[in-house]
Design goal:
By secondary structure, this protein is an alpha/beta fold. It has a domain at 1-169 and 313-405 and 414-434. The chain is built from 16 helices and 14 strands. It has helices spanning 25-41, 73-83, 95-108, 127-135, 160-163, 180-183, 230-239, 245-253, 257-281, 293-304, 325-341, 346-350, 354-371, 373-376, 378-388, 410-432; strands spanning 12-16, 21-22, 53-54, 67-68, 71-72, 88-93, 114-119, 146-150, 173-179, 202-205, 212-216, 221-223, 289-292, 308-313. A hairpin with a 2-residue loop joins strand 4 and strand 5. The protein is globular and about 65 Å long. The two termini are 40 Å apart. The relative contact order is 0.15.
């Protein structure tokens, strides 16, 4: 495995507002309903009625266009990038994404950043093609990481710890792993403190044998695109949700057996020790995949022949994506609650780009309601989706008022408190910046 010496600071980003499409609405809905039913039957912590696109939709059910507090999800994600030290941003998305993007930037400005749009390839909606489209719009050096991020992380506005992470220098992929224990250290004693409900299928032993973490796959990737085979990225991404990352690495390594033999000592140690360590800490614990952090770094780096590292962060906004109706509702409840606390200016209290987002809502959303079918009557559109996915309630009343039974839950109040403190901290840093 070759050593690497990258620039530490990441200055370029590909943000994807694109997603695959299923062949029919019936197939997409059946998959979403089946997943939720299986999670309910298993008593899972997080239940997800997935928001899925299909080829026969009259209205494109693209989750990045969903409205939170009357503002598209994609605008929150763009606001996060505009607040950051990034210099170049490539946006991948549909024609409707482009329409929102152009209006958004004309209202809030680009903050001196170079922003380019590339239309998604509707016949080839996959990660490799998305990365290829974005990469073609960037001038990337051999020793430079770029940030790849899906655009469904509306409150991930503390990006500087990723962009300036010291580990960027010596690694070509950094996996920012979502650790339940780090993000919600009191979840056992105070269940309401875990304001983002997710299912953690993976386990990792950190630096000490008794330091076991429940993990969820990463949602953003600092990557050196110039030194990594795109197939590796596809393997990593496609295997991240089913615990098959080691198997994917072995498949690639078999093309070069030397890699496999270099990784073998770490794989053998894992096979003989990991499960017994887990059982000592959490008897009867069930998980899809687990490994010690050291063995993971060494084995994957050797199998794929690239330096990889992980960071077990403590920021809930990294795991709070919008994959499902339940995720959307978390944010709609949060912003609704915040608005009730601050006489209509609540978004400014919990998001550093809140003032600009509200300006966009007031100035441009009336026009977009005439141009984008989803926005013509968004409450009615959401209620229809809730009914079609066999949810037992609807989020809006007949007047378009948000009436979710979850709006005053302890988790919403905890989320509001957490984001309010985080936003205040980020705003103070932005004020101090030159």
């Amino acid at each position: 495995m070759l050593a690497t010496k990258n620039k530490i600071q990441i200055e370029k980003c590909i943000v994807s507002f694109s997603h695959n499409k299923y062949d029919s609405r019936k197939l997409a809905d059946d998959l979403s309903i089946a997943k939720a039913k299986s999670e309910i039957a298993a008593g899972k912590n997080g239940v997800s009625h997935l928001i899925l696109r299909s080829k026969d939709d009259e209205i494109d059910r693209l989750k990045f266009l969903f409205l939170i507090h009357g503002i598209p999800v994609m605008c929150y994600a763009l606001g996060n990038l505009l607040c950051s030290s990034l210099k170049e941003i490539v946006v991948i998305g549909s024609t409707e994404v482009q329409r929102v993007l152009e209006l958004f930037l004309s209202t809030v400005d680009t903050y001196g950043k170079t922003i380019k749009f590339v239309r998604e390839d509707d016949q080839n909606l996959n990660l490799l093609q998305t990365l290829s489209l974005g990469r073609n719009k960037l001038s990337i050096e051999d020793n430079e990481l770029i940030l790849f991020q899906p655009g469904d992380l509306p409150f991930l506005y503390d990006l500087e710890k990723v962009l300036g992470f010291k580990g960027n220098r010596n690694h070509n992929i950094i996996l920012w792993l979502n650790s339940r224990q780090n993000m919600f250290p009191e979840f056992n004693e105070k269940p309401g403190s875990e304001f983002v409900k997710r299912n953690y299928h993976y386990r990792i032993l950190n630096d000490h044998e008794d330091d076991l973490h429940e993990l969820k796959e990463p949602n953003l990737y600092p990557i050196n695109l110039e030194t990594i085979d795109p197939v590796i990225i596809d393997y990593l991404h496609s295997s991240r949700k089913d615990g098959q990352i080691i198997n994917a690495g072995i498949k690639m390594a078999l093309k070069n057996p030397v890699r496999f033999f270099k990784a073998l000592p770490y794989l053998v140690d894992h096979a003989f020790t990991f499960r017994s360590h887990v059982q000592k800490i959490f008897p009867k614990d069930k998980y899809q995949f687990g490994m010690s952090r050291r063995n993971f770094h060494k084995s994957i780096s050797n199998l794929l022949n690239i330096p990889i590292t992980t960071n077990l962060h403590d920021d809930p906004s990294f795991v709070a994506d919008v994959d499902a109706l339940e995720d959307w509702e978390d944010f709609e409840s949060l912003t609704h609650f915040a608005g009730n606390q601050s006489e209509g200016r609540g978004l400014e209290k919990i998001h550093p780009f809140g003032k600009e987002l509200m300006k966009f809502r007031e100035k441009d959303m009336p026009l977009l309601k005439k141009k984008i079918p989803m926005y013509e009557n968004f409450p009615s559109y959401l209620n229809h989706i809730y009914r079609s996915l066999k949810m037992d309630y609807e989020p809006f009343d007949s007047g378009g008022n948000y009436i979710s039974p979850n709006v005053n839950s302890p988790e919403v109040k905890q989320a509001y408190s957490w984001y309010k403190k985080k936003c205040k901290l980020i705003n103070s840093k932005l004020d101090e910046a030159p």
